[in-house]
């Protein structure tokens, strides 16, 4: 924590020179109709300057990012090896601009790059590139909600192809006996089994000061920007 810093950004004399000022980070979303819903909507139901200041003064999001109350890692690297020799690496970091996840797939016949908005497919044989537009909302959340609402409205539970029992464990690597799961909005499919997984992340000690990147961690006090 910088000398002279206080427990809350609104009262802090060094707030203007702090890269993780909650006031500056969230105030930029006030005029953005999309970001007023998220992440600003997590802080307050009143997305106005007065509503934001009240949320930062009374709620957890206005506390100093260096206060040490957050035990969530600010970066993580996972290396995976699947049956058949396919390898993958996953990197999570809080030190980015507000953006979607990036995905890159490399095969013997081509590659695919995704940024949450488009997929760019490069065919090695023809040396051609195809760009595919994705959901403008940047993910499957909209389709999940649509499927749920349709199931409730029609009473047709088959529109929901998986529940918490199947969906929650599915992202966990290396679960024994988990070679098959059902997609939330699609048919059952076979998932490659993870042969080995190695996770690298900071080891936190009790009382260790909070790293500045945690203000933008996905779990930072219930929902700041992830990564």
Task: Explain the overall architecture.
With 227 residues, this protein is α+β, with helices and mostly antiparallel strands. It is 19% helix and 22% strand. The radius of gyration is 21 Å and the shape is extended. Strand 5 and strand 6 form a beta hairpin. It has a 4-stranded antiparallel beta sheet, with no helix packed on it. The protein is built from 6 helices and 9 strands, in the order ααααββββββααβββ.
Morphology call? extended
Main sheet? Answer: 4 strands, antiparallel
Strand sequence of the main sheet, in spatial order?
Answer: 3-4-5-6
Q: Strand content of the residues, in percent?
A: 15-25%
Average pLDDT number? 77
Radius of gyration: 21 Å
Number of strands: 9
Order of H and E elements? HHHHEEEEEEHHEEE
Q: Helicity level, as a percent range?
A: 10-25%
Structural class: alpha+beta
pLDDT < 50 runs, ≥5 residues: 174-190, 203-227
Keywords for this entry:
227 residues, alpha+beta, four-stranded antiparallel sheet, 6 helices, extended, disordered C terminus
Please give a quick description of this structure.
With 227 residues, this protein is an alpha+beta fold. The chain is 19% helix and 22% strand.
Show the helix and strand layout.
Elements: H1 22-27, H2 33-37, H3 40-43, H4 49-58, E1 75-82, E2 87-93, E3 103-106, E4 110-114, E5 118-123, E6 128-133, H5 141-154, H6 164-167, E7 180-182, E8 188-190, E9 194-200
Antiparallel strand pairs: 1-2, 1-9, 3-4, 4-5, 5-6, 7-8
């Amino acid at each position: 924590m910088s000398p002279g810093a206080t427990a809350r950004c609104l009262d802090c004399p060094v707030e203007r020179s702090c890269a993780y000022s909650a006031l500056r980070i969230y105030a930029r979303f006030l005029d953005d109709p999309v970001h007023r819903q998220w992440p600003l909507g997590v802080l307050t139901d009143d997305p106005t300057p007065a509503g934001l200041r009240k949320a930062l003064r009374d709620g957890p999001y206005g506390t100093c990012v260096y206060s040490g109350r957050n035990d969530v890692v600010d970066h993580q690297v996972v290396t995976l090896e699947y049956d058949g020799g396919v390898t993958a690496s996953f990197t999570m970091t809080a030190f980015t601009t507000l953006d979607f996840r990036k995905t890159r797939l490399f095969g013997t016949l081509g590659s695919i790059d995704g940024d949450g908005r488009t997929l760019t497919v490069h065919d090695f044989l023809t040396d051609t590139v195809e760009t595919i537009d994705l959901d403008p909302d940047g993910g499957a959340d909209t389709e999940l909600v649509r499927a749920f609402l349709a199931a409730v409205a029609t009473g047709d539970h088959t529109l929901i192809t998986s529940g918490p029992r199947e969906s929650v464990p599915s992202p966990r690597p290396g679960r024994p006996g988990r070679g098959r799961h059902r997609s939330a909005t699609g048919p059952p499919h076979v998932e490659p089994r993870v042969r080995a997984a190695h996770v690298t992340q900071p080891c936190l000690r009790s009382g260790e000061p909070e790293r500045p990147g945690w203000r933008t961690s996905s779990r930072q006090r219930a929902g700041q920007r992830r990564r």
